[in-house]
Structures are given as structure tokens and as C-alpha cells.
Amino acid sequence: VRKRNARQGQAPATDAAPSSEADNSTMKSPASPTKTSFKLRVRCPVCGFTQAGTRTPKTCPACGSSSEHFESFEVPIAARRSRLLALRLHPISSHAAPAFSATLLLLTAVLALADAAAAFGVALIGTIQVLSVLLPISIIVAAATGLIDAQARVKRRTTRLLIRKLAVSALFLALSFAAGALALLKPFDSATLLPYGVLMALCSACALYLGRSGSQLRNALVPE
Ligand SMILES: [Zn+2]
To answer: CA of 94: how far to CAs of 123, 127, 151, 167, 173, in Å?
Structure first.
């Protein structure tokens, strides 16, 4: 069923070429292969999981049911958007900020138990300072690629979910700047440890919200 559907999906594109040669008025139809690519996807009828392409694994990666009943469908999407989304800029770059936040929270907890003056403590503080610089940079990169991704995926940046994501990203960035200032501008001592830990817990909460809301948008794709 899947293979037949896939072939049907390709049929309009190949049929369009001879007819557009015969009739100039249809030359620049939306089906023109230079402007529109038909993004083929397969969908699991059991859980709704979708995946790009026509090839399917033996079982659904999401729910484990047999993929023999997977149905294929196509989303007409401009070639430029298709190429941009294929780079997966936001899904990849957005992993850094949550990883840095969680690592910094963990390192702060370890430092609270370690002797800050010993060699291990000094190395910990150095690591915290380096990661405190990388955290705001990673948030800015993730937000920038998120805006590019939203424009390519849903062709809007002002839906309620996207505005909420941007607001939480701005809060995340402000918290990371405050944590960075604490880590770099003053000696990192026991007085710094508690406020820094609180800031990292809040940063991790922002990262968690952004990751969860982002996964809702993973399969969103507005046609054409
Ligand atoms: Zn499934």
C-alpha cells in the first residue's frame, strides 16, 4: 500500500512536465518542480507518529506496532523551505542550552559538597565559569535558529505557543546573564553558591519548558 501511494504521489509531478510544454499558461503552475517539492511522509495509523520519506522501519519507532499499515501522504512545500528544514538547525542547536544548564546545576551541587580551595574545587569553579559563558551564547543561537525554523515550518512567528516560547527564552537568557555575572565578576565562594544554584534551577526549568513545547512542534509543517 505504501509503495503504491508513494508512486501516486510522484505521478502529478511527472505528468505536469509534458502538459506544461504543451500549454504555456501552466508553465509556472504551483506544481513546478523548481518551486515546490512534495515532501513525502509516512504516518503510523495507531499512534500518529510521522516520519519523512517513504521507507519505514519494521515497527513504529514511537509505539512499536507493525509498520505494514503505515500510510504515506505528501505535503507540498516550497523547495527553499524544504532545504532549510532538512538542515535541522533548531532541533540540533537547541540541545546545548539544556545540557549546559543541567550540567551547571549538577556541578554547583558537587561544589557545595567539595572543598572549594582544594585542586578539585578550583577545577570545578573553572569549569563552571567556562560553561557560564557558553550558556547565554547557546541560548541566543537556539533562539535565532528557532525563529528561522518557525518561519520555515509554520510560516509564522507570532502564534501563542511561539510567543510564549520567545518570552521564556528571554527569561532564560536574562537568568543566564545573571548567573554568568555571579560566576565571573566575584570570587566564586560559598556566598555565591546558593544564588547561583537557584539561578541554574530556574534556567533548567526554562530549558525543560522550551524542550517540551518544542517537541509539540516537531512534526508541524504548513503546506506550500
Ligand atoms: Zn505508532
So the answer is: 27, 21, 16, 16, 13
Contact 146, 217 (CB under 8 A): no
CA 215 to centroid of ligand 1, rounded, Å: 16
How far is the C-alpha of 17 from the C-alpha of 206, rounded, in Å?
50
CA 115 / ligand 1 centre spacing (Å): 50
What's the whole-model pTM score? 0.75
The Cα–Cα gap between 66 and 172 comes to 41
Check whether 8 has a pLDDT greater than 50: no
Q: 50 CA to middle of ligand 1, Å?
A: 8
Ligand 1 centroid to Cα of residue 78, in Å, is 28
End-to-end CA distance of the chain: 25
Residue whose cell numbers read 533548531? 90
Q: What is the pLDDT of residues 53-94, one digit of tens each?
A: 888 888 888 899 988 889 888 888 888 888 898 899 999 999
| In the chain, beta strands by DSSP E | 36-43, 50-52, 71-78
Distance 219 CA to ligand 1 centre (A): 14
> How many residues make up the chain in this entry?
224
**Contacts with 206 (C-beta within 8 Å, 6 or more apart), sequence order:** 101, 168, 169, 171, 172, 175
Q: Which three cell numbers stand for residue 74?
A: 505528501
Between CA 148 and CA 85 the distance in angstroms is 9
For ion ligand 1, residues whose CB falls within 5 Å: 44, 46-47, 49, 60, 62-63
Distance CA 115, CA 152 (A): 50
